[in-house]
Structures are given as C-alpha cells and as structure tokens.
C-alpha cells in the first residue's frame, strides 16, 4: 500500500507548474495499452531558475520521456512513491511521456479499464494518474486532443471528449482524433472504445445550435435507451429556462457500462454511466428506476456548467459542484413530476443516509478539512446536505435574486477552478444578504436541533426557539447557525392565519403574533432547514389531517408514527388516535403517491437513530405489531384501495399510473402482514399477471418475506426468466439479501456461487453484500456471523476494488451506538479488518475512524 498520509485543506498551495495543452495518443491492444502524452508545461515562477517537476503516477510502466523533443536520460528523472520527478526543467517546455498500462487487469475501475469488452475510463478524483503521469489536480486545466488507435472490428466506436476532428484507416486498424476546446482538469478526461449500439437524437439550443445527442450501450440494448434520451432533452431545455445555461459543444455522448463504481460521471461531452442509470423499459425497470434515470441523466448534464465550466480549485471544494448540482437535479425532478412527493422523498433520503452519517464517527462538514482517501468523501453529507445548504440560500434570496446570483456566479468564474467562498461571494453580492454567519454550514458538522416552546396568553401567541448545536467529534463546541425557518400559524379549520419565513441566527429567539384564538403551529415547512425539530407539545393528529403544507402534513404523520411505535416499545400499547388518523388518511382524497407516503410507517432506521443504545429486536417487534393491527382493523378499506388501483396491464410511466402502483403496493404490503390466504393469492396473482417490474418486485418481496412455498416458486420463475439480464438480477439478489426470513445469511453466502454473481461487478456486490450489510436483522444477529461474513468480504474485495470495500465498511458506522453484546462482536471484526496486511488507505481511513 502507498503510505498513509492525511491531506489538509489548510496546506493548499497553488500549483508550481501549469499544463496548457495535453495531446494524448492511445494505442489499444488486447493485453496492454500504450499511452503517449505530450504536454505544454509552464512554471508559475518567472525567475528562470531550474525546477523539479512532479507528476502523479500510479502503477505506470515508463517507456521513454522527451523534453523539448530531446530524450531524457535516466538521471534526469526518477519514479518513486507514486511521483515521477523530472529534474532541472526550464520555465516553459514540452514534455512527451510514453508509458504502458494494463486496462484488462484493472479491477479498481479507476483510470482506464475494461467493462466486459468495452474500454472506458473513470478519473474523478484521482484516476488520471493511473493512465499517464500528470499534475493530477483540478486547478490545472488544459486543452486536450486525444487520438485513439484500435482494431477496427473489435472497437468500431472510439470516443473521447469534445468534437470529433478526424478519422483514419490503416489496414485492420483505425484511429479517431477528438478535440475539446474547453480547458479542463484531468478528472474530466474520458475515453471509450468498443463495439457499441447507439441511439441518436438532436437538440436545438436557445441560440439555434443543433447538438447531436448519442447514447451508446451494449449491442441489443438500444431500445432501452429512450427514457434516458427523453430525460437528457428535458434537462437541456430546463437548464436553458431556469438558469439560462446552454450546451457548448457540437456533440453530447453518453455511454452505459456495466462495471462502474458509482452512478455516473460528467466527463466533458462524454458522460460515462453505470448502465443502471441508462437502461430501462416497462418490463425490466421499476418506477423508481425510471425516476433515478431521469435525475442522474439531468445531474450529469447540469454538471456541464456547475462542475465543468466552473470547476473546483481542490477536492475540499467538492460540494461546490456536487451540492449545487444535486440541488439543481432535485428542482428539475420536482418540476417534471410531483413537487410535494419529490420534496418528501429528498428529505427521507437525507435523513436515512446523511443524518445517520452525521451522527457517526465519520461525520464531517460539507467542506471537510482533511482526508486520507478522497474517494471516501463522495458522501451523503457533501452531496445531499450540500444540496440542502444551497436550497437554504435559494430560500433566503428568493427565486429572482437567486437567479441574478447564479448569473453572476457564471459570469464571474466561467473557465476557472474556484472555491465555495467564491460561490458565496456571488450569492451575497447579487442576493444582497450577508452570508458570513451562514458560512458555518460549510465548516461545522453534525445535525443541529431546534427546541420549540409555545405560549398563548392575552391574545398573544409566543414562539420560543433554542438552537442546540452538537460538538465536533473531538468535543469542541460549535457555533449557532443562520437559516430560514418557514412557519405558519393555522386556525382550527387548518386555514393559514399567516405564513412567514423567519431568519434564525441566535441561540435563543422569541417571536410573537397577535391572534384571536390559540393557533396551531406548522413549523419547518417544506423542510426549509436541515435540522431536527424538538417540540414541547405537538399537534400531530391535527396537522397530519389538515396542514396545507404537504411536507409538514407528511412530517406530522411520520412523527405520530414514531411516537406510536415508541409507545409500543415502552408500554406495549397501541395509540388509538394514531389508528384513527391512519383510517382518516386511507379515506382522504389525495394524490395517490402522496397518500402512499403518508401511509408508510417510520423505518427501522428512523427509530434506531432515536435510540441511545441501539437494539433492533424491539423495533422489529413493535413494527410488526402495529402493522398487523392496522391491517386487521382496516382490511376492507385496504382491499378496496388495492382493487381500485390494481390495473395489471397498465404499464405506462405516466404519473397517474405510477401513483396507482405506489398506493396499491403500499397497501398490499400492509395487508400481507396478516398472512391470510386470500391476500397471498392476490400477491401471487400480481406476480403472475402484472406487466411491470414495479409490481413484480413488490410481489416478490412480499412472497419472500411471508411464505416459504409460494415465494420459492415465484423466485425461481423470476430467476429463469431474467437470469441473462444483470440489471434485473441485481433486484433478485437484493430481495434475497434483504429478506427477514431465517437463514438469510446462509442463502447470501450460497448465492456468491451463482453463475450470475460476479465479485468484480460493483452493482452485484452492492445488491448482494451491500444490501445484506444493511439488513439490520441479520447483519446484527447476536451470533456475530453477519459481522464476520461482511468483514471477510471487506478484506477480500479490498484486494480487488478498494472503493467497493470501503463502501461496505460503512455498514459498521453505527458501532459506537450499539448495545454491548453487538459492540464487542463488531469490534473484533473491525480490528481484524484494520490489521489486515496491505489494507487499502480507503478502508483504513473508514475503519480507523470507527474504532477511535
Ligand atoms: N462526479 C460524479 C457525480 O456526481 C460522481 C462520481 C465520483 C463518479 C467519483 C465516479 C467517481 O455525478
Ligand atoms: Zn455530481
């Protein structure tokens, strides 16, 4: 392993050399690739001294180096500890480096690698140094020309960034040269070569340029790319209308590959995607998959301005592009679908992933101060909390000033590598707000709490708020925040007496209003700030029935559910008022997806986050008890909702069809808790007769968790039908790995030998091992076998793909909060992982943080 070194933001220095031009030539062979890299380099110092140029290089075989066309002798350079040093370089020169790499052996999936028979790249954050020696940091921006030479038959499609410049044929080989006029950091470089299928379309931009759009995929999958193409065109139009941003090359290429560590990558003009976020049709993809494609396609497209045209000065600024781009894709999805449902889904995801992270030993600010492996910082905090921070700015400024501020940001920093401070400058300048205190959101970690107490006397309503800010991991105090808090006061009919966005900036604040009667408080409307609200008294029952703000309505129902479950855990008592409210919602006339969200009971993770010492068993028991009770009290109502909305042959992805599937699968799941035969028949029927993957998966999941016999029949039917489609098989593995049935661990272990399973493909690892590691019931089983299994996998997979392994290690983040029995078992496994010989720095960083 490379030496473990912690990198600090405070140590940032401007680069000593700049690369203005980078000409690359790739000769692709079956068992190796030759890279020739010719750079124009200039020292930032103007003193005519001789300096040592340092280039990042990992696992490269150097062939030869030329400085200003003169071959360098061995004495002029050295290669050690991932740095290639070239001595005594002049102020301005060209450097040509020829080196050899082995993409077919690259299992880390960083740099140039093979996904099946396709050559592809992944360079963010530091993959480019695995391709050729380079000043591999985002504040070094160059203009790239790329020539790819390969066998014509095997690799008819040769792609890189920018516009196509020329093509040539030589016998069995051909070459294509690409030119990207926009200076860019190396992490945005991309190359693809393969025998690919493609669909084309075009888009006319607002200033009348016609852009060629291509989506490439494995041959035979072309018909599954249309939803992605539709989404791309929607995103292009949306960015013009909402931000005035237009696309800037003649061509926009997207390539779908099966082996990819993350979701997708915004390489300039050549996005590379995990095929999960491109390929879909009504038979093979769930509604959730369709929504995921729409949002990730848009996300990568939006990066063209927020990320590529304006990029990050260093990796500590990651949230500059990610927080902003997530906020943009969230707004896009909200505009194209249901706003209310989108907001609730975003908040749910934030709390399930980011709040948990923020309460763990790996908690960090959206702008971290240090890292060992940058790969570990592509987190829910940097992305999702980062998006909440931008959303707060949007709320503080309002739509109009926010648009002026983003215009100013684009005008001021186009073509540059900048910091979050630069972004905040544009926001405060055009928004005319002082964001000095607001900036704390970038540098402090943990989730703030807001204590709320209310008083009503002499026709005066008084609201008292107290900010409670968690300490840092080291126990240092942190300071109070500046944030928008949207509230309303409601009368007994649920009508708004007033709605206001308060600006909170002090530890204690008091607000008061004159009202004729005691109002009901609706607080943190739309989840205007990413905080935890603690109310002295609550009106959940009223608000979940009557609040006009859909988020608070959801929130109240959710909190009501939490209280109800906690009462069951502590007093074994089911709250009748909650049961009544549940019935009220069942009858209410609402958007069906929204209704499905209101009817969803709080997750195991929600309750776990509230426990001082985590113990899952009581949570599972309480959940089961409440669900069974609701299902038996409302069986008839639930059945009629199911029947009214179950249209087995409707496979449209129009919103009404999706809404119907959402509600009927929600009620079916609840009904299945009864275990009644008539219900199991419905489920089986749905599996057999529905034409959508959403319905099939919902049914399969229920069958797996309720009945041995029917479950086995349907599962094997599913397997036979879809075993040749890896994307569908991911769903199969995930259902089995998430199963609450006895014996899940044994089955997961056995599935590793299934013909379809492949430890080198991240999607499959995530579906089988990753999902198991988040199956609280079995991962945390008291015999410790769940822990042992996952620890074994981390050690094994770390040798193949360190990024995958450290993602798995994340499952141990709740270590500190576990009960003594589980803690002891976890500790033993964590120690075993950390002391593994030649463990990657990725895994070391995560596990070490958990243990200390
Ligand atoms: N930059 C990518 C995105 O947000 C994520 C990514 C990071 C992909 C690192 C691969 C590697 O969209
Ligand atoms: Zn992104």
What distance lies between the first and last C-alpha atoms, to the nearest angstrom? Answer: 22 Å
Strand order of the largest sheet: 6-5-9-3-2-12-15-14
Range of helix content? 40-55%
Low-confidence stretches: none
The proportion of strand residues reads 15-25%
In short:
The protein is of the alpha+beta class and 852 residues long. A hairpin with a 2-residue loop joins strand 10 and strand 11 (118-122).
Account of the 3D structure:
The protein has 852 residues and is of the alpha+beta class. 41% of the residues lie in helices and 23% in strands. The chain is built from 26 helices and 31 strands. The radius of gyration is 28 Å and the shape is globular. Zinc ion binds at residues 299, 303, 322, 325. Phenylalanine binds at residues 122, 124, 261-262, 264-266, 299-300, 322, 378.
Question: What is the strand and helix layout of this fold?
Answer:
Blueprint: E1 7-8, E2 17-28, E3 33-43, E4 51-56, E5 61-67, E6 70-71, E7 77-80, E8 83-89, E9 92-101, E10 111-115, E11 118-122, E12 142-151, E13 157-160, E14 163-170, E15 173-184, E16 191-194, E17 196-204, E18 210-218, H1 226-243, E19 251-257, E20 264-265, E21 270-274, H2 287-302, E22 311-312, H3 318-336, H4 339-358, E23 370-371, H5 380-413, E24 417-418, H6 420-431, H7 440-443, E25 449-457, E26 460-468, E27 483-490, E28 496-504, E29 508-514, E30 520-523, E31 532-535, H8 540-546, H9 550-571, H10 576-587, H11 592-598, H12 604-610, H13 616-633, H14 635-645, H15 655-672, H16 677-689, H17 693-706, H18 708-722, H19 726-737, H20 744-751, H21 762-773, H22 776-779, H23 785-798, H24 802-809, H25 820-834, H26 841-851
Parallel strand pairs: 2-12, 18-19, 19-21, 22-24, 25-31
Antiparallel strand pairs: 1-23, 2-3, 3-9, 4-8, 5-6, 5-9, 7-8, 10-11, 12-15, 13-16, 14-15, 17-18, 20-21, 25-26, 26-29, 27-28, 27-30
Helix pairs in contact: 1-2, 2-3, 3-4, 3-5, 4-5, 5-6, 8-9, 9-13, 11-15, 14-15, 15-17, 16-17, 17-18, 17-19, 18-19, 19-21, 23-24, 23-25, 24-26, 25-26
The structure holds phenylalanine and zinc ion.
Domain Peptidase M1 membrane alanine aminopeptidase: 228-441
Family: Belongs to the peptidase M1 family.
Cofactor: Zn(2+)
């Amino acid at each position: 392993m490379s030496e473990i070194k912690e990198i600090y933001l405070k140590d940032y220095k401007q680069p000593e050399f700049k690369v203005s031009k980078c000409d690359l030539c790739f000769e692709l062979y079956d068992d190796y690739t030759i890279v020739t890299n010719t750079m124009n380099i200039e020292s930032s110092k103007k003193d005519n001294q001789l300096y040592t140029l340092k280039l990042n290089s990992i696992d490269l075989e150097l062939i030869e180096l030329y400085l200003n066309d003169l071959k360098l002798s061995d004495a002029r350079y050295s290669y050690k500890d991932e740095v290639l040093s070239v001595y005594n370089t002049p102020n301005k020169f060209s450097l040509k480096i020829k080196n050899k790499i082995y993409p077919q052996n690259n299992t880390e999936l960083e740099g140039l690698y093979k996904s099946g028979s396709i050559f592809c790249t992944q360079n963010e954050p530091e993959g480019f140094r695995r391709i050729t020696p380079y000043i591999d940091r985002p504040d070094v921006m160059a203009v790239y020309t790329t020539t790819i030479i390969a066998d014509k038959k095997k690799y008819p499609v040769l792609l890189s960034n920018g516009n196509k410049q020329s093509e040539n044929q030589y016998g069995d080989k051909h070459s294509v040269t690409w030119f990207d006029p926009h200076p860019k950091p190396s992490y945005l470089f991309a190359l693809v070569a393969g025998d690919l299928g493609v669909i084309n379309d075009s888009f006319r931009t607002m200033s009348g340029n016609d852009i060629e759009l291509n989506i490439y995929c494995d041959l035979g999958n072309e018909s599954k790319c249309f939803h992605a193409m539709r989404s791309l065109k929607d995103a292009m139009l949306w960015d013009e209308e909402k931000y005035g941003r237009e696309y800037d090359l003649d061509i926009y290429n997207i390539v779908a590959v099966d082996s990819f560590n993350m979701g997708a990558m915004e390489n300039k003009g050549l996005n590379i995607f995990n095929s999960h976020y491109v390929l879909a049709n009504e038979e093979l993809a769930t509604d959730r998959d369709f929504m995921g494609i729409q949002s990730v396609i848009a996300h990568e497209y939006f990066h063209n301005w927020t990320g590529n045209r304006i990029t990050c000065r260093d990796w500590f600024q990651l949230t500059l592009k990610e927080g902003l781009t997530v906020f943009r894709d969230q707004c896009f999805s909200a505009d194209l679908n249901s706003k209310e449902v989108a907001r609730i889904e975003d908040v749910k995801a934030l709390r399930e992933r980011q709040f948990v992270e923020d309460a763990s030993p790996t908690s960090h600010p959206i702008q971290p101060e240090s890292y060992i492996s940058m790969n570990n910082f592509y987190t829910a905090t940097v992305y999702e909390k980062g998006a909440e921070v931008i959303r707060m700015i949007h709320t503080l400024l309002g739509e109009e000033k926010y648009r002026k501020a983003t215009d100013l940001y684009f005008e001021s920093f186009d073509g540059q590598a900048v910091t979050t401070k630069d972004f905040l400058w544009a926001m405060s300048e055009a928004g005319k707000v002082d964001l000095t205190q607001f900036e704390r959101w970038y540098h402090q970690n943990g989730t703030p709490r807001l204590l709320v107490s209310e008083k009503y006397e002499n026709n005066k309503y008084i609201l008292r708020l107290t900010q409670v800010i968690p300490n840092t991991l080291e126990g240092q105090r942190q300071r109070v925040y500046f944030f928008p808090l949207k509230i309303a006061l409601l009368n007994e009919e649920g009508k708004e007496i007033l709605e206001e966005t308060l600006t909170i900036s002090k530890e204690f604040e008091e607000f008061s209003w004159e009202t004729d009667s005691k109002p009901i408080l609706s607080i943190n409307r739309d989840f205007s700030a990413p905080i935890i609200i603690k109310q002295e008294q609550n009106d959940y029952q009223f608000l979940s029935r009557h609040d006009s703000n859909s988020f608070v309505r959801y929130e109240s129902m959710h909190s009501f559910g939490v209280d109800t479950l906690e009462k069951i855990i502590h007093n074994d008592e089911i709250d009748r008022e909650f049961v009544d409210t549940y019935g009220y919602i069942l009858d209410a006339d609402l958007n069906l997806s929204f209704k499905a969200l209101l009817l969803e009971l709080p997750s195991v993770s929600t309750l776990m986050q509230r426990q001082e010492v985590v113990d899952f068993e009581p949570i599972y028991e309480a959940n089961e008890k409440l669900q069974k009770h609701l299902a038996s009290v409302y069986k008839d109502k639930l059945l009629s909702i199911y029947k009214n909305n179950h249209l087995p042959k409707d496979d449209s992805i129009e919103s009404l069809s999706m809404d119907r599937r959402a509600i009927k699968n929600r009620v079916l799941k609840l009904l299945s808790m009864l275990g009644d035969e008539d219900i199991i028949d419905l489920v089986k029927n749905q599996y057999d007769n529905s034409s959508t993957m959403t319905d099939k998966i919902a049914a399969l999941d229920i069958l797996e968790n309720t009945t041995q016999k029917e479950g086995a029949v349907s599962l094997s039917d599913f397997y036979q039908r879809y075993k040749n489609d890896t994307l569908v098989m991911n769903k199969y593995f995930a259902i089995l790995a998430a199963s609450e049935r006895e014996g899940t661990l044994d089955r997961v272990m056995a599935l590793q030998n299934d013909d379809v399973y492949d430890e080198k493909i991240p999607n499959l690892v995530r579906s089988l091992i990753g999902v198991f590691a988040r199956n609280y019931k079995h991962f945390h089983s008291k015999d410790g076998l769940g822990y042992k299994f996952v620890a074994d996998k981390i050690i094994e997979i770390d040798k193949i793909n360190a990024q995958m392994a450290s993602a798995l290690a994340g499952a141990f983040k709740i270590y500190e909060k576990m009960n003594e029995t589980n803690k002891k078992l976890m500790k033993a496994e964590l120690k075993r992982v950390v002391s593994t010989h030649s463990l990657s720095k990725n895994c070391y960083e995560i596990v070490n943080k958990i243990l200390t």
